[in-house]
Amino acid sequence: MFKKAIEQNLLSIHVHNLRDYTPYNHGKVDDHLYGGEPGMLLMIEPIVNCINALQKERNYDEVIYMAPDGQQLTQSVVNACSLKQNIILLCGHYKGVDERVREHFITMEISLGDYVLSGGELPAIMLADAIVRVMPGVISDACSALTDSFQDNLVAPPAYTRPYNYKGMTVPEVLVSGNHRTIQEWTQQQILKRTKEKRPYFFEKEPMDQVH
């Protein structure tokens, strides 16, 4: 998907190594924490130098830090990010980044969930993938992405394809009936049923995940 988007000039991705922006010898980008806590932390200078250098080249709509304690990544967040022109994704490592980076240079923090990975690279790739697939022109059938799970805070319905009968396991008759109205009614019922089963809290909250 990335390759297709890049070939169609819908997307460009650039990876920047913080070691190229550090003022310290031997490409040093991390140090021990003040206060004596265990672990290492990414230093402020390499990160800020990188952000400043990039912002001199173009305007950025968001500087996003992939943080375990950030805003949860949801489809509405993805949809909002897909409307941005330029985004910086900052990947943390070790114990994360110096808090001053988060306080003064980050505009949005996004988390994949309440767990910690060894670095922010995988979350950044997952965010990028989710954004790219909803960009017009990337997926051949644009309606496909719009009917995925979590659009409109609903879960996608059961889906079937050939063969109709596999060892006695058959496709619901309504889907092969040819009655489009009946199929739509069945589909909507299944969407609500599956959402209540798998994501019941979608019906308990106000519209979710507004991007700030």
Notes on the structure:
This protein has helices at residues 2-7, 44-57, 75-82, 99-104, 121-132, 142-146, 180-198; strands at 30-32, 40-42, 62-72, 87-91, 108-111, 165-166, 169-170. A hairpin with a 7-residue loop joins β1 (30-32) and β2. The strands form 3 sheets. The protein has a 3-stranded parallel beta sheet with strand order 4-3-5, with helices on one face. Strands 1-2 form a two-stranded antiparallel ribbon. It has 2 domains: 2-132, Alpha/beta knot; 147-203, Trp Operon Repressor, Chain A (Orthogonal Bundle), CATH 1.10.1270. 33% of the residues lie in helices and 14% in strands. By secondary structure, the protein is α/β, with parallel strands linked by helices. It has 7 helices and 7 strands. It starts with a helix and ends in a 14-residue tail after the last helix. The protein is elongated.
Q: What labels would you give this structure?
A:
single chain; elongated; two-stranded antiparallel ribbon; alpha/beta; disordered C terminus; Alpha/beta knot; three-stranded parallel beta sheet
The CATH fourth-level homologous superfamily of the largest domain: SPOUT methyltransferase, trefoil knot domain
Count of helical regions:
7
Going by helix content, strand content and strand pairing, the class is: alpha/beta
Spatial strand sequence of the major β-sheet: 4-3-5
Query: What general outline do the C-alpha atoms trace?
Result: elongated
Proportion of helical residues: 25-40%
As residue ranges, the low-confidence spans are: 207-212
Radius of gyration over all CA atoms, rounded: 22 Å
End-to-end distance: 28 Å
Q: How is the CATH topology of the largest domain named? A: Alpha/beta knot
Question: What is the level 1 CATH name of the largest domain?
Answer: Alpha Beta
CATH architecture tag of the largest domain: 3-Layer(aba) Sandwich
Order of secondary-structure elements: HEEHEHEHEHHEEH
Mean pLDDT: 92
